From TrEMBL:
InterPro entries per the UniProt record, alphabetical: Cardiolipin_synth_ClsB, PLD-like_dom, PLipase_D/transphosphatidylase
Membrane topology: Peripheral membrane protein
Family as reported in the entry's similarity comment: Belongs to the phospholipase D family. Cardiolipin synthase subfamily. ClsB sub-subfamily.
SMART domains: PLDc
Location of the PLD phosphodiesterase domain: 104-131, 290-317
Lineage: superkingdom: Bacteria
An example molecular function term from Gene Ontology annotations: transferase activity
Gene behind this protein: clsB
Function summary: Catalyzes the phosphatidyl group transfer from one phosphatidylglycerol molecule to another to form cardiolipin (CL) (diphosphatidylglycerol) and glycerol.
Naturally occurring in which organism (per UniProt): Massilia phyllostachyos
Protein name from the UniProt record: Cardiolipin synthase B
Length: 386
């Protein structure tokens, strides 16, 4: 398992939801001159998807080498085929990750864009409309989906580029000469210089060299926490190590607050609810976000550690899927991220311990059954979940 490697002198900008992300992405794509690597889990057939798709095609038609990788489950078979036909006509190189689950059930849940090795975007935002539910077709949300991406410039972009290049290579069937050429591209020296204060790391989860890297980054931060932990996640079902780290931090007097999305999947809510009594007993604050679909996977620890990415705090993200996060060590960035999470907490509903004291035995049993089923599935498909 790889250690988390931080590099200095990065400019990391937080972008909230698609209203901030997509204009920045389109501007970067329209300015691209050499190379674009683009990965997403969902590439929707909606106006947002069409806008991003057209920008990628425009870049390819200018002579930019554009490579797009989507997930077969996330984008779905029909849309991914139709997207491929449009990209083929427009000169975009296109691949689908793990079609028909031929390589097992792992998904590429990453959301990454790298343009000319100069700027990168990493986060949780899929290519879809903020106002439309991403698991129920044409269902409009009560408010725009809440999510984040970071725009990165500086030395960290090279790390992101090399990983995206490697993922592209692994997703295809290339001849030896093509693999050598891609490897040479990965080893090119960076062309840009950048003098900004943020120290940052790019952390990924895969089933080879980085099986526990994202969880390791979280555990290290939780283990060093001194006064506060704020964590927002759509789905909460981590393994025992992660839950223990949260509890140990709370016992040391650290104020731990979890902002958890609810209302998407009933069984997922039941699994999260099964943890509430123990979390509350440990002094951990639990807040449910019900304003709209919470899709953000972000956290802030103390005053200088923050992360933004695609990894949920559940078994699928921490032990099975391909994921990508950026970890930032910078007080200014952490303060910005903290302010956003605190606003989310203000929009949420605190969970009280006394509420669970009056829950009927049948509902308690359903929560426990949901957790046992989830745990069984994770142990079958995801090595390391407990």
């Amino acid at each position: 398992m790889r250690h988390v490697t931080f590099v200095d002198n990065n400019d990391v900008t937080l972008l909230e939801s698609g209203t901030a992300y997509f204009p920045a992405l389109i501007a970067a794509l329209d300015a691209a001159e050499h190379d674009v690597l683009f990965e997403t889990y969902i590439f929707a057939e909606d106006p947002t998807g069409e806008t991003v798709r057209d920008a990628l095609v425009r870049a390819a038609q200018r002579g930019v080498k554009v490579r797009v990788l989507v997930d077969w489950i996330g984008t779905e078979h029909g849309p991914s085929q139709r997207l491929g036909a449009i990209f083929a006509e427009g000169g975009v190189h296109y691949r689908v990750f793990n079609p028909w689950c031929k390589r097992g059930i792992a998904r590429s849940h990453r959301k990454i864009a790298v343009i000319d090795r100069e700027v990168a975007f990493v986060g949780g935002i899929n290519v879809n409309d903020d106002w439309l539910c991403d698991h129920a077709e044409h269902q409009r949300l009560a408010a725009p989906r809440w999510d984040f991406t970071v725009r990165v410039a500086g030395p960290l972009v090279d790390h992101i580029h090399d990983e995206a290049q490697g993922q592209w290579l692994r997703a295809g069937r290339l001849k030896l000469r093509q693999r050598i050429e891609l490897f040479k591209e990965m080893r090119k020296e960076p062309r840009q210089t950048c003098e900004f204060p943020a120290r940052a790391a790019f952390v990924v989860r895969d089933n080879l060299r980085n099986r526990s890297t994202i969880q390791r980054a979280y555990l290290q931060a939780l283990g060093r926490a001194k006064h506060s932990v704020l964590l927002a996640t759509p789905y909460f079902a981590p393994g025992r190590k992660f839950r223990k780290a949260l509890a140990h931090a709370a016992r040391r007097g650290v104020q731990v607050t979890l902002l958890i999305g609810v209302g998407e999947f009933q069984i997922q809510d039941a699994v999260a609810h099964s943890f509430y009594p123990k979390l509350l007993a440990e002094g951990i604050n639990v807040v449910e976000y019900r304003k709209t679909q919470l899709h953000a996977k972000v956290a802030v620890v103390d005053d200088d550690w923050a992360t933004v990415g695609s990894s949920n705090c559940d078994g699928l993200s921490l032990f099975l899927n391909q994921e990508a996060n950026v970890v930032v060590l910078d007080e200014r960035f952490a303060a910005t991220m903290r302010a956003h999470i605190e606003r989310g907490i203000a929009d949420g509903v605190p969970v009280r311990a006394e509420e669970f004291a009056h829950i009927g035995w049948l509902r308690r049993a359903s929560y426990g059954a949901a957790y046992m089923l989830y745990k069984l599935v994770m142990r079958i498909f995801a090595i390391g979940y407990a």
